[in-house]
Write a structure and sequence with these properties.
By secondary structure, the protein is α/β, with parallel strands linked by helices. It is 38% helix and 15% strand. It has a 7-stranded parallel sheet, sandwiched between helices.
Length: 261
């Protein structure tokens, strides 16, 4: 009989999260540790290591300067974990690399910028998935979670951006759509090895956007508010834990009902 009281527990599990110092990644790191996991934070912002050191005991996490666009950088972390006999139970791709001209309107996007963003973001997730999944195959188990987006599923409503300088970058839609499809492919490919691969598609997350944008977004969203990073925790822990042991190839939408209308 399953122990339902502890079905969401991550005790004695090890998790790697890319982009762990970011807006969403930071919150996920906190949750993983709270649920009992040992966490390897993989991020290019090495200065944030002091922040995590002030929050958690050293045996709960370690911080690594990892560039997801570099196969050697990703493999160096995995090799270090192998050398220390660490099992990768959970790998979460949450990094969000982008160019300085990110946010240009479609007609102003250069081919070079488009290619660079796709290469850094989607291809970076590919590199991480390939290395992590092969490691998990040797273990005979594992869970991979890719952070996608509702804009990988549906087209943007550009009316919510009026009266702001904001837009939805075209490359973002292509990247996140590709990540969702790649997730399904990998779930099918690695399922026979007892490895689960899922994605999460958040709706808009509040990050001090202009008031007019927030108001426009909330008017359209059925729950009448933007999401918060806290809203993503339940779904992440579900997909990381044994609570979802028969869930793979799924894109978990956490959007306050945005894509339902």
């Amino acid at each position: 009989m399953p122990d339902y009281n502890n079905i969401f527990s991550l005790k004695n599990k090890t998790a790697v999260i890319t982009g762990g110092a970011g807006l969403i990644g930071n919150k996920i790191v906190h949750a993983l540790i709270d649920f009992g996991a040992k966490v390897f934070i993989a991020d290019t912002d090495i200065q944030k290591s002091d922040f995590f050191s002030s929050k958690f005991k050293k045996n709960k996490f370690s911080y690594h300067n990892i560039d997801i666009t570099s196969k050697s950088s990703v493999n160096a972390l995995i090799q270090e974990m192998k050398n220390n006999n660490e099992i990768i139970d959970i790998w979460i791709n949450c990094a969000y690399p982008k160019t300085k001209d990110w946010g240009n309107k479609f007609e102003s996007i250069s081919h070079e910028s488009w290619s660079e963003n796709v290469d850094m973001h989607m291809n970076g997730y590919f590199l991480c998935c390939q290395s992590a999944l092969e490691h998990m195959k040797d273990q005979g188990a594992g869970s991979v979670i890719n952070m996608a987006s509702i804009y990988g599923m549906v087209g943007p409503d550009f009316s919510i951006y009026k009266e702001t300088d904001m837009t939805m970058p075209a490359a973002y839609a292509a990247i996140k759509g590709g990540i969702i499809s790649m997730t399904r492919y990998l779930a099918s490919y690695y399922g026979p090895y007892n490895i689960r691969v899922n994605s999460i598609s958040p709706g808009g997350i509040f990050d001090n956007q202009p008031e007019s944008f927030v108001n426009n977004y909330e008017m359209k969203c059925p729950l009448k508010r933007m999401g918060t990073t806290n809203d993503l925790i339940g779904g992440t822990i579900f997909l990381a834990s044994d609570a979802s042991q028969y869930v793979t190839g799924h894109n978990l939408v956490i959007d306050g009902g945005w894509t339902s209308i």
